Amino acid sequence: MANSNSAETNDVFQELDVDRLEVNVIESLCFSCGKNGTTRLLLTRIPYYKELVISSFDCPHCNYKNNQLDPAIEIKPQGVRMSLNIENKEDLDRYVITTDYTSIQVLDLDFEIPPMSQRSQVTTVEGIIAKTVTNLSEQKKVIDITHPEIASKMEVVINGLIGIKNLTKPIPMMVFEDATGNIFVSNPVAPQADPRMKTEMFTRDSAQDKMIGLSAEQDTTDQQSIIKPLGTFNDSSVNNMNDEIVQFSDPCPNCQSICETNMKVTDIPYFKQVVIMATTCEECGYRTNEVKPGGGVEKQGLQITVKVSAPEDLNRDILKSETCCLRIPQLDFEAGALSLSGRFTTIEGLITSLHEQLKDTATAFYSGDSQSGGVLAKTEIFLEKLNNIKTCKMPVDIILIDPAGNSYVQSLTPPDLDPKLTIMRFDRTDEQNEELGLNDMKVDGYE
Predict the structure, then answer these.
(1) Residue ranges of the Zinc finger ZPR1-type domain (predicted)?
(2) What CA–CA distance (Å, rounded) separates 65 from 31?
(3) pLDDT tens-digit readout, 189-228
């Protein structure tokens, strides 16, 4: 740093406020020429995604430039895989946010960009293809003479990628996979369900945990830090947990400072116990609220359909677990398990949260984009329909589909059948068991 005055140095890093979106300008060393350049930092939150630190360095002496994108939140419990069928120009224009750990596959070409081979970036599907074609073309020039057989294979991939970019190949599929769970691909028909992209969660293996810095030793330590305080409860004290808030310390997922987590066990009538956890870090301001159903994964999945047409329906308690997706067929809308986190609220509260997230998403991604006027218009119409649901002007069915069987909607006529509430159980598919991590779970032979 060029600043020598200590008072000035203390002010170099201004407090980053995600609501004001202030750009912080820092004088910093250029690694190319050794003189001082300028780094600009911006902390921003992208709805439906996460918080990001965007940095841009520029040296006026040697004209060296460097742009970088870094995540600012914790690694998700599971990885994410997004499979996209590219059918038209709209798919090529999708926004894509990747991390250092993102892999990109083109299945038809048997081609993969492995994780740790490129930096985090904000781009489009077309931008990824164009950059890959450029990089492969440059590499091919080098090995044309020394390794002609490899160069010929690269030529096939390059021509295939160009065909995808020009929309001359028959509906190719690109698969975006990220072990940290922090990848984003925009939906051009938002807020409706994406007809050409499938999103699924997966359990990381030991190699992926090691790649992203979650070694087996660290996992064991993290589990012990949580299990130790909870393990002090015996059978008699468990009965009293509903009457008290349990507090324990653990490292902050954001800054690693020790912070307090408050936990309370609550009984939901005619359902089961749930664990409500809230963490607040006084050092960095990180906050999180989670609702975890007790009892683990149920033997069968659960589909709950509730008809919403009156104020009393909006006041029903609802528990949406983190493995549950939400559908509103009258709006042709579906929100996957990744879109809305686990929460215990009312139907009106759930619709309000959905309204706020969709509005923030439209503002963040499509404001000022001339090509996205249609998305903005459709979003405004959809938001108005959500308001009509909240004022009972538009009757709808709200459907919760939870493969883990840990979601709940309050009945208004217990213990009798509720005419507006339909509950169905179903056997999970192998794919759903895989997403829940059940296929590799060993439950025999421990004696």
Answers:
(1) 28-187, 250-411
(2) 10
(3) 877 788 899 988 888 888 888 888 775 444 444 444 333 3
